[in-house]
Structures are given as C-alpha cells and as structure tokens.
Design goal:
- The chain has 410 residues and is α/β, with parallel strands linked by helices.
- 40% of the residues lie in helices and 15% in strands.
- The chain has helices spanning 2-44, 63-69, 72-82, 119-139, 191-196, 199-202, 205-213, 238-241, 269-284, 306-316, 318-321, 343-352, 390-393, 395-407, and strands at residues 97-99, 105-107, 144-148, 160-164, 173-178, 217-220, 227-230, 259-262, 297-303, 325-331, 353-357, 366-371, 378-381.
- The strands form three sheets. The protein has a nine-stranded mixed β-sheet with strand order 3-4-6-5-9-10-11-13-12, sandwiched between helices. Strands 1-2 form a two-stranded antiparallel sheet.
- Strand 1 and strand 2 form a beta hairpin.
- The longest helix is centred in the N-terminal third of the chain and has 43 residues, at 2-44.
- It is elongated.
- The protein starts with a helix and ends with a helix.
Length: 410
C-alpha cells in the first residue's frame, strides 16, 4: 500500500543520508590525516614540495592542494617558501635568504632555515652563496681578486679566481689556503655547511681571523674551478628550478650543445696549484736563495682533496719549498704517499705535517700510532665524525700546531 511504499522510501532515504554522513566523516578524517602528514613533512622535516607525495595516490600535490590541505597556521610558511624561488636567479637577495649575525642562512621574512626545493634550485642558490662569500673576502677582508690565467684583459666568465690578502707579497710568513674538490669555491670549506649550518663551520672566515691576528699573508687557492661553459648559460628560471633532477645531472638551463672548456694552466687541481706557485708566489713573494730568504716562512692549510694539491706542490717544487715550509695542516686530507715517493718529500710530510681526521674521538686524540703509513704524517681526531665539519672543529688545534712549528722552525 501507499503507506508501506512511503516507509520504504523513508528508510532508503535514511540509509542514503547515513552513507553520505559516513562518507563525509571519512573524508574529514582523511583530510585531517593529510593535513597532519603535510605539516610533518613540509614544516617540521623541511622536505621540498617536489619530494612529498600524497600518501594514497603517490602523486605530487599542486600548490592549490597545499593551500587546501595544509593547516591554516602553515599556509603563510608555504607562501613564504614559494618566495624563495625567484622568477630568475639573478642575485643572492632574489632568493629571499640572508645571513644573520651568527653566519646562519635564514629566510628574510620568517627567519626559518634553508628549505629544500630541488637540486637545480640548490645549485643556483649555492653559486650565489659562493659569490656572496667572495664579495665578503673583498669588502670585509680587503682581499684582491685575481683572475687566472693572468692576462691584461681577463674574461671573468672563462677564468679561475683566486684571492690575495693585503700586502701579502711583503709578509715574512705566507699561508696557502687550499680547499677540497666539488662545488666549493674560494672562501669555502664546505658548501653544504654554508647553506645548512653556518659560515663559522663552512667558510674559511674563522681561519682568516686567526691568520690576520698573526700578521701573515694569505693566498686562497681555487683548485677545482677548472672549466667554463661555452656559451655562457642564461640565468636559471623559476620553472627550471621547479624541475626534479639528480645531483650531477646537466642543469636545466644548460643546452646539450654547450661545451665545457678547460681553463688554460688550471685544467686540474695539480696544474692550478703549480700555476699559482709559479706565476704568483715565486714571482712576487719568493726571495732569491741566500741569507735573506731564511726569514721567509711558508704555511699550508689544506682540506680534503686540497691535500693532494699540496702533495703536487711538494713533489714538483720541492727545491723551492723545502727550506721555507714550517707547517702543513691537513684537515681530513685524502692525500697519500706514492710508492717510490722521494725521501725528501716523505721527510717534509713526516716532520712538518699533521692530519686532523674525522673521528668520534676527542679533539687531538691520536687516531693512529705514530706516523700513518698512508698519509705519511701524524693523524689526530678533528673532534667530529663528519668529513665536512673537520676544518671548523679543529681550528684551535690547527693554529696551536702552527704556532708551535713557527717557534721551533729550523
């Protein structure tokens, strides 16, 4: 009958409403779970939006989806994060990052630390951080930027820059600072630390302060900037920085037809080291052999692959350096003695050098008994277990070592 049909309809309608309510509750619960997930991944763990995928679909979320699902208090952080991706990577400030008084890279708007976007974005920012540090070498420390190879009209886009301290050629003691390999440039020990930690641990600035207090001259080498690109790539764009690539892959703003050309005289770390010695040090600082030259002192501080650059100098210019060298401070150097290494080179390394290596042991605690067979010198702990931190953590010990060698020079 009619009443029975209406009762059935009411029951069916009730069932539909209940199912819709359950669906909405499930959606709300799902959205709440997604909001919590995005907060943890994006805000707390600092993951980049290209590396966060929807936990159910496995797809990368759009900007609008972040605005929809992020907790309200996180929306502003997200919008400010997007402001660290400029339309074009023209200068350091365009990324909306700056260094605070503690030498830490921080967001100019909210003060948060560096937040990952992509490898192209990281590399573009890293290049501009390197430029910023080199600017400070000139503006704060009054260093002179010199382009290699030496020329009356050098082209900055195809040159290798090094930095010379004020009046370095007239100082009795000259320090050669040699960084490692990879993306680091003059003024840096570790690019990653300059971005993610601080300039105190990642840059050479604390070393320059110590050297300046001793009135030593300084030359900052650049052993791994060995090539240039032709034609010069245009500045990377926002869309290219929002591309997910692997470390070491071709940057998206570099055309496949672009050529990588060697910088004459600086084709690798060994050639660079010898070029700087022959054309800068030997011609402008090194005095003729004799009594006057005995007043000169040479000190080398070398990190990682910089140790191999140092060995290239000792092997190939030993007759010029052996009477001048007072101390060699290696920081987690990767150098090693060769089979058939000359006794004179072994003697320099054994008597003048020390290697502060990554270790869980306390600073200066011996890592090997006596002289390490491979490195040829004493090895002690740098006071940190990670390679990139060694230079920053062992600085006090490095200069105590140098001071001791200077007092007991022979």
């Amino acid at each position: 009958n009619l009443e029975s049909e209406k009762e059935v309809e009411r029951k069916e309608e009730g069932i539909k409403r209940e199912r819709e309510r359950e669906r909405l509750m499930e959606t709300d619960e799902s959205n709440s779970s997604l909001s919590k997930y995005l907060h943890e991944e994006f805000v707390e763990k600092y993951k980049g939006i290209l590396d966060i995928v929807h936990p159910k679909t496995g797809k990368i979320l759009s900007e609008e989806e972040y605005r929809r699902y992020l907790p309200k208090e996180d929306i502003q952080i997200f919008e400010e994060y997007l402001k660290t991706i400029p339309e074009e990577a023209k200068d350091f400030a365009s990324f909306n990052y700056t260094y605070n008084d503690q030498g830490q890279l921080r967001h100019m708007i909210n003060g948060r630390k560096f937040h990952w976007v992509s490898q192209p974005h990281y590399d573009a920012l890293g290049d501009l951080v390197a430029e910023h540090i080199q600017h400070l070498l000139v503006s704060k420390y009054n260093f002179t930027k010199t382009l290699l190879p030496l020329s009356d009209n050098p082209d900055p886009s195809s040159s290798c820059p090094i930095f010379l301290s004020p009046n370095w050629e007239s100082k009795n003691t000259l320090v050669l600072l040699i960084q490692g390999t990879g993306a680091v440039r003059p003024g840096q020990w570790a690019r990653a630390l300059c971005i993610n930690d601080s300039l105190t641990n990642g840059s050479i600035f604390p070393y320059l302060d110590q050297i300046s207090s001793r009135d030593f001259g300084v030359i900052i080498f650049n052993p791994n900037q060995n090539t240039f690109l032709s034609p010069t790539p245009p500045p990377i764009t926002k869309s290219q920085m929002m591309t997910k690539t692997k470390p070491g892959s071709r940057p998206p703003n570099v055309l496949p037809s672009t050529k990588r050309i060697d910088i004459p005289g600086n084709e690798d770390n060994e050639n660079h080291t010898l070029y700087v010695w022959d054309n800068i040090v030997a011609k402008n600082w090194l005095k003729p052999s004799g009594t006057e030259a005995s007043d000169q002192n040479l000190v080398i501080i070398a990190h990682s692959m910089g140790g191999e650059s140092t060995m290239a100098l000792l092997r190939n210019r030993r007759s010029q350096v052996e009477g001048l060298i007072r101390a060699v401070a290696f920081t987690d150097s990767v150098h090693s003695l060769r089979r058939g290494e000359k006794d004179e080179v072994r003697k320099i390394v054994r008597e003048k050098a020390r290697n502060w290596v990554k270790s869980s042991k306390a600073l200066d605690e011996k890592v090997s008994r006596g002289i390490d067979e491979s490195s040829g010198c004493e090895e002690v702990s740098a006071g940190h277990e990670k390679h990139e931190y060694t230079s920053g953590f062992c600085i006090s010990s490095v200069f105590s070592f140098i001071d001791g060698k200077m007092k007991n020079k022979k």
